[in-house]
Design brief:
Blueprint lengths: L18 E13 L4 E7 L2 E7 L9 E11 L2 E6 L1
Parallel strand pairs: 3-5
Antiparallel strand pairs: 1-2, 1-4, 2-3, 4-5
């Protein structure tokens, strides 16, 4: 996976299917049965992040690695 940090603003359709690493802060957390959906932002923008493991809290600083995908015509990061 990519070891180089990608700003959220740099994530676009050309990166779908590609691994990226983002560093940001959690602004929203939705815990579902088998996964959590986070809203993560940095100083360039925000993105939805789907995670299957871990405990995340509002306001937490995070470094996440995952694959860019598209869901409901919106880009997201899926962390495996």
């Amino acid at each position: 996976m990519s070891q180089v940090k990608t700003s959220i603003a740099e994530i676009d359709e050309s990166l779908i299917g590609q691994p990226v690493k983002i560093i940001g802060k959690i602004s929203e957390v939705n815990h579902l049965e088998s996964l959590s959906i986070l809203q993560v932002y940095d100083n360039t923008g925000a993105i939805e992040v789907v995670v299957f493991e871990g405990v995340y809290e509002l306001g937490q600083d995070v470094e996440l690695r995952g694959e860019v995908s598209e869901y409901n015509e919106e880009l997201q990061l899926v962390v495996n």
